[in-house]
Specification:
Layout: H1 2-10, H2 16-22, H3 31-40, H4 55-61, E1 65-75, E2 85-97, E3 100-108, E4 117-124, E5 135-146, H5 147-150, E6 160-174, E7 179-192, E8 201-214, E9 219-230, E10 236-247, E11 256-261, E12 264-265, H6 266-274, H7 280-289, E13 294-295
Antiparallel strand pairs: 1-2, 2-3, 3-4, 4-5, 5-6, 6-7, 7-8, 8-9, 9-10, 10-11, 12-13
């Protein structure tokens, strides 16, 4: 066997790693095993080797399928905390067909943080270095989460201080550099503070969908059956279905935007606007006119 392998190598003038990966001189050697074998043999791979630049992520995309079961994952973000989040009963399945990639991930976090999590995706792309031009959809479903506890492990924005319940997040890409996110919310006991000059926003319940889409330039925000109950009096504010589009100013073109909705609850909208960091002049105008009622 060794002699035949030696003779096979003598007939080639190709880089050694490409020979190992080619499948003719030896069968069944992947990128990682080839790198380890060459390292143990004392053969140094040149910098910029085209077979070694993509890393583990792109290597995964080249495999027809990959399955992992009964895994334990330890997550630690040193920029956030010195604590590690341990996920157990992990399972991962990846199937690649050319540029089409389907995957699913499931794992169990500690009970005090959330129920078992699930992530699934159906995406299309060539390499992780070109993620901007990928298209497809990734979904994450989290139930019984506690945002205050998650803050010990993930960089949750400081403005979102408290909350518990369920979140379903869908990330989308159109293959032209535009990305979007749709969040399906079912949260309770939420506290948020976007404006440090006013009291935090206390919300007893938040439900419905909020979507954000990147435009060129600008952004689009949509709501679908969004409903809020204030924490102080449990009264409801129902923005319902609305769309907000904003385009920043460029050159001599001023910034512009539009709001589309069937009706507007001015009283609830005023409470929200007072809690976000608008200009001092805008806040003064809101306080002066104090709009109330409902427009339909």
């Amino acid at each position: 066997e060794a002699g035949a392998f030696h003779q096979a190598l003598k007939r080639r003038q190709t880089a050694i790693k490409q020979v190992l990966l080619g499948g003719e001189a030896v069968v069944g050697v992947g990128n990682i095993y080839a790198s380890e074998a060459l390292f143990l043999a004392g053969i140094k791979l040149p910098q910029g080797d085209p077979t070694d630049d993509s890393g583990l992520a792109d290597w995964l995309l080249k495999q027809r399928s990959l399955a992992i079961s009964n895994a334990t994952l330890s997550w630690q973000d040193a920029m956030v905390s010195d604590q590690a989040l341990v996920l157990t009963d992990g399972g991962f399945l990846l199937e690649n067909r050319g540029d089409q990639h389907n995957f699913g991930l499931a794992a169990r976090p500690p009970d005090e943080i959330a129920n078992p999590i699930a992530v699934s995706g159906n995406v299309q792309g060539k390499t992780f270095s070109d993620l901007r031009n990928w298209r497809g959809e990734i979904q994450t479903h989290l139930q019984n989460i506690d945002l205050a506890t998650l803050r010990n492990f993930f960089p949750i924005p400081d403005e979102l201080r408290r909350g518990s319940g369920g979140v379903k997040l869908t990330l989308t890409g159109d293959g032209r550099g535009h990305f979007g996110a749709i969040t399906d919310l079912d949260l309770k006991n939420v506290q948020a503070q976007f404006n440090p000059t006013v009291a935090p926003l206390e919300l007893a319940e938040v439900s419905g969908k909020v979507g954000v889409k990147h435009l060129t330039p600008g952004f689009e925000v949509t709501t679908d059956n969004l409903a809020v109950k204030w924490g102080s009096n449990k009264q409801s504010w129902r923005p319902g279905n609305a769309k907000i589009i904003f385009h920043p100013g460029e050159g001599n073109n001023p910034e512009r935007g539009e709001i589309t909705t069937k009706e507007i609850d001015l009283t609830g909208l005023l409470v929200v606007l007072q809690s976000v960091p608008l200009s001092t002049e805008t806040h003064d105008q809101l306080h002066k006119f104090a709009p109330s009622g409902r427009l339909t």
